[in-house]
Amino acid sequence: MNVIFLGPPGAGKGTQAKRLGAKRGVPQLSTGDILRQAVAEGTPLGKKAKALMDAGKLVPDEIVNGIIEDALASPAVAKGFILDGFPRTVAQAKALDEMLDRHGKQLDHVILLVVPIEVLVDRLSGRQTCPVDQASYGKEHPPKRPGYCDKDGAKLVVRPDDMPDRVRQRMQEYENKTALLTDYYKPRGVVRPVDGVGTVEEVEKRIQQALR
Ligand code: AP5
Fold it and tell me: SS in 3 state form for 38-64?
């Protein structure tokens, strides 16, 4: 099963992609998580990406294309993959098509999480993230022990790009560059719009139905 999660910042892509990956036993590949890890480790990739990410701007296509190219060459994706946060531009989508062709794979589903802007802003203003496993917590999905990750006990942090002015910038990047991808994939009959408002469990059920 090869799946892409599309949707604006705060739509729940990471939350749902992690759950689906765990349930189906396929890796969730998040370019945002991989880039944040590189920033935390201070690698050359992280140094290139940090200023752009903190400002809420997209990092260059060639950087993220390289990350996904490496991931798709790994035996870990033999049974499938879930892409979360990639592709984000038409150029990335075209690059992905070429990579999938080279690896003899095809896309099965594009889950499009639909959430109104006021809900997105509210979710991102209350988000805390685990710096170790990148799990997200929010007002309606709090950690069991306030301020600490349920899974690894790490102290939760607020992402620099969740500041209100950066959130506005990310929404603009989404509208200008990523929203076009729905039309890119529509002719293939793989786009599955899913209402992303409701509890995490309700949205998860809708995704399961959309994948049937
Ligand atoms: P990335 O990490 O991909 O960020 P994003 O797309 O802005 O998405 P978010 O992580 O903010 O939201 P999400 O949809 O995953 O929602 P989540 O599940 O966390 O990218 C960050 C940056 O990296 C980019 O700005 C860019 O600079 C760079 N980058 C990454 N990929 C790139 C690419 N391909 N090209 C170029 N640059 C790239 O949920 C949000 C909150 O809501 C959480 O608090 C969660 O607990 C809560 N929540 C989730 N579901 C529900 C629910 N049903 N009800 C209530 N609360 C909920």
Answer: HHHHCCHHHHHHHHHHHCCCCCCHHHH
Q: Residues 138-145: contacts with CB within 8 Å, 24+ apart? A: 140/199, 140/200, 141/15, 141/200
In contact, 200 and 13? CB cutoff 8 Å: no
Question: Using one digit for the tens of pLDDT, what is the confidence trace for 65-123?
Answer: 999 999 999 999 999 999 999 999 999 999 999 999 999 999 999 999 999 999 999 99
- Report whether 193 contacts 207 (CB < 8 A): no
Instruction: For residue 24, indicate whether it is catalytic.
Output: no
Residue 156 near ligand 1, beta carbon < 6 Å? no
DSSP secondary structure code for residue 11 in this structure = S
Question: Does any ligand 1 atom lie closer than 6 A to the CB of residue 21?
Answer: no
C-alpha pair distances (Å), 59 with each of 32, 76, 90, 177, 194: 10, 25, 14, 12, 27
Amino acid at 16: Q
Provide CB contacts within 8 A for 53, sequence distance 6+.
35, 36, 39, 59, 160, 161
Distance 120 CA to ligand 1 centre (A): 10
